[in-house]
């Protein structure tokens, strides 16, 4: 270990201070004595960064920052002879290379060095973000920066109940073509988060593949092509148009199939009429000839259904081994169906829990020709939208304890303002997505010894198996950190990684001009499934944190997220425009309520010289940082 690295680490430790007047370039002092003598710093603790609080050197650095000018090392050394020019040069150039050396040092010496490195990392990001490292708050609370670039009051914390992780946009890039372009173009044309298109599209793709494929995994178990998704947003967030757009390709196939079904039904009824006539003639002839043969029962193909009761689904599933998609504008209707025939006791819940795994379902009916309907493998994917408050009411504690809610992949992006756009999805993207669905619909089945259709099992390549084992181990470790609702959600996410990988595999193969003769899920598809599950894990944590809050807290959450997405601070005039407040006083009053709720505080920029006083800004208290909130997500090395 070189002396210079040790010296830098020592200086970072020294610069790790609190209750200083200004925040700027961390590190760069020769030793603690020089720091205290030059800048009169006393009673220092261990949790912040510091620059000169007084003196001509501080004025010089502040003046350079305010003017957007790069400080000169030689000039600063002349102003304060206590700082050697080479040390000043290092002070002014704390960059990624320095941070990298400090990280290496921290790994070798341990102790509290990781905190020192974290300070340098955060500060480096702050300088990149703002062009300067100087800011202050009214009570001299230092201003920090999260790895995502969100500023916050460093030594203050938002109330724990409101510390919901910031939203991260759905990872569109991990999707294969043509669904990647379709999702991106659809989100842009509708002014919605890509998740509003991607989630119902994943459910529709899963339903189209359905009972034709399953993925075989190491350890002797398999995962079906079943995906349940819910997009969560308030009324007016364009959930319904997003679901309709994403499910339109399968709905189009379903509509064409219904036309064929209508013709088949008409022909079948005519065949039954002929059978009844021939049977009467046969009886009148006293059976001197062979009796007429009764037409086989008609199987009506379905792809999309709306009535989600198990009793209504059973005969449809008996005729459709590929399965169906339950698509609802409002998933509250799906939930309400659980109690329709059970006297409010949720009799359908147990059946739905089984159907998520593709298990067999047997239904005893009170009416109809078939009193008992047995479905050997119930393949049902589900999608729809729901408002957050309704979701909280519809999925009660029993639903959470049973794992019903945990079976849903969710997305709860912040609300986007509606603006005019003349953008639309290119016709080429529409055509490609239609072609994809048609090819997936035509996937063939395997058959058992009795000739009954069953899913064709798709194995993993050797490289994919290695990647899968790594994911399972790391995901299991992450799951062990949770209890209750999140533990249940994480247990289902493991299966979803395989299911999503299967969908990615089938999409890639369907659109390939020359697919391999041997069908196997490769590492690229597994990596895609794992990446998507990591995103869904984050959304699960956000959802359950939200469900643990009161109505009053929920009212301010969109405001917190809006400010966080704006960089963590906002001026009164900017807030007035953002929130369409009639006056600046109204905007300031709303921000003041956030201050009084302990969610942030006012920050007034320093004024140098005469002129108009700078306007104060609202700065959020610390929100969860990526290294605090994401430490349990599985991380699998990508190729």
Quick gist of this model?
The chain is α/β, with parallel strands linked by helices and 639 residues long. The chain has 23 helices and 18 strands. The strands form five sheets. Strands 1, 2, 16, 17 and 18 form a five-stranded mixed beta sheet that branches. Strands 6-7-10-5-11 form a five-stranded parallel beta sheet, with helices on both faces. A four-stranded mixed beta sheet has the order 4-3-14-15.
Query: Which range does the strand content fall in?
Result: 5-15%
Largest sheet: 5 strands, mixed
C-alpha termini separation: 32 Å
* Broad shape: elongated
Helix content: 40-55%
Total number of strands:
18
The low-pLDDT segments are 1-54, 83-99, 101-156, 342-346, 624-639
Structural class: alpha/beta
Mean pLDDT: 74
- Number of alpha- plus pi-helical segments: 23
Oligomer, anyone? Answer: single chain
| Number of separate structural domains | 2
CATH arch. level architecture of the largest domain: 3-Layer(aba) Sandwich
Could you walk me through the main structural features you see in this protein, from its secondary elements to its overall organization?
The chain is an alpha/beta fold and 639 residues long. The chain has 2 domains: 3-134, no CATH class; 172-261 and 299-547, Rossmann fold (3-Layer(aba) Sandwich), CATH 3.40.50. Helices cover 49% and strands 12% of the residues. The strands form 5 sheets. Strands 1, 2, 16, 17 and 18 form a 5-stranded mixed beta sheet that branches. It has a 5-stranded parallel beta sheet with strand order 6-7-10-5-11, with helices on both faces. Strands 4-3-14-15 form a 4-stranded mixed beta sheet.
């Amino acid at each position: 270990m070189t002396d210079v690295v040790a010296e830098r680490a020592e200086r970072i430790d020294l610069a790790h201070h609190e209750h200083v007047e200004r925040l700027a370039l961390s590190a760069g002092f020769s030793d603690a004595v020089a720091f205290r003598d030059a800048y009169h710093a006393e009673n220092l603790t261990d949790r912040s960064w510091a620059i000169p609080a007084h003196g001509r050197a501080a004025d010089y650095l502040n003046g350079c920052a305010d003017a957007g000018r790069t400080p000169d090392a030689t000039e600063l050394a002349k102003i304060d002879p206590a700082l050697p020019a080479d040390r000043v040069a290092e002070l002014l150039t704390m960059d990624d290379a320095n941070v990298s050396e400090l990280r290496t040092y921290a790994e070798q010496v341990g102790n509290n060095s990781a905190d020192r490195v974290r300070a340098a990392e955060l500060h480096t990001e702050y300088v990149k973000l703002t062009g300067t490292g100087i800011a202050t708050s009214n009570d001299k609370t230092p201003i920090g920066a999260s790895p995502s670039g969100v500023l916050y009051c460093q030594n203050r914390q938002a109330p724990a109940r409101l510390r919901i992780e910031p939203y991260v946009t759905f990872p569109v890039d991990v999707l294969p073509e043509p669904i990647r372009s379709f999702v991106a173009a659809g989100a842009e044309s509708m002014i919605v988060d890509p998740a509003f298109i991607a989630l119902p599209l994943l459910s529709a793709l899963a339903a189209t593949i359905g009972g034709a494929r399953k993925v075989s995994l190491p350890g002797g178990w398999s995962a079906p092509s079943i995906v349940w998704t819910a997009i969560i947003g308030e009324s007016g967030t364009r959930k319904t148009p997003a679901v309709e757009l994403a499910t339109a390709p399968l709905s189009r196939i379903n509509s064409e199939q219904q036309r064929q079904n209508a013709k088949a039904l008409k022909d079948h009824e005519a065949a039954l009429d002929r059978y009844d006539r021939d049977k009467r003639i046969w009886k009148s002839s006293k059976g001197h000839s062979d009796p007429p043969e009764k037409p086989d029962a008609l199987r009506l193909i379905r792809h999309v259904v709306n009535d989600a009761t198990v009793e209504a689904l059973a005969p449809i599933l008996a005729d459709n081994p590929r399965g169906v998609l339950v698509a609802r504008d409002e998933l509250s209707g799906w939930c309400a169906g659980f109690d329709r025939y059970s006297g409010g006791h949720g009799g359908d819940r147990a059946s739905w829990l089984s159907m998520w795994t593709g298990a067999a379902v047997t239904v005893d009916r009170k009416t109809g020709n078939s009193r008992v309907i047995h479905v050997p493998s119930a393949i049902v994917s589900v999608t729809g939208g729901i408002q957050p408050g309704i979701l909280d009411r519809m999925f009660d504690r029993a639903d959470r304890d049973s794992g019903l809610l945990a079976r849903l992949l969710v997305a709860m992006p912040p609300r986007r303002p509606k603006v005019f756009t003349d953008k639309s999805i290119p016709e080429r993207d529409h055509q490609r997505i239609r072609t994809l669905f048609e090819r997936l619909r035509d996937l063939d089945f395997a058959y058992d010894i009795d000739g009954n259709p069953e899913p064709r099992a798709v194995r993993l390549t050797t490289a994919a198996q290695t990647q899968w084992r790594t994911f399972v181990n790391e995901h299991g470790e992450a799951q062990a950190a949770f209890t209750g609702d999140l533990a249940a959600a994480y247990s289902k996410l493991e299966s979803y990684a395989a299911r999503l990988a299967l969908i990615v595999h089938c999409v890639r193969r369907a659109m390939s001009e020359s697919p391999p003769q041997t069908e196997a899920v490769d590492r690229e598809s597994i990596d895609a499934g794992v990446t998507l599950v990591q995103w869904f894990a984050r959304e699960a944590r956000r959802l359950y944190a939200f469900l643990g809050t009161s109505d009053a807290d929920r009212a301010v959450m969109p405001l917190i997220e809006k400010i966080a997405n704006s960089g963590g601070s906002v001026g009164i005039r900017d807030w007035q425009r953002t929130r369409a407040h009639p006056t600046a006083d109204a905007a300031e009053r709303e921000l003041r309520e956030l201050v009084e709720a302990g969610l942030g505080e006012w920050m007034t920029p320093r004024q140098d010289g005469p002129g108009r006083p700078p306007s104060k800004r609202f700065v959020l208290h610390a929100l969860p940082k990526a290294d605090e909130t994401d430490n349990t997500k599985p991380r699998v090395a990508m190729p």
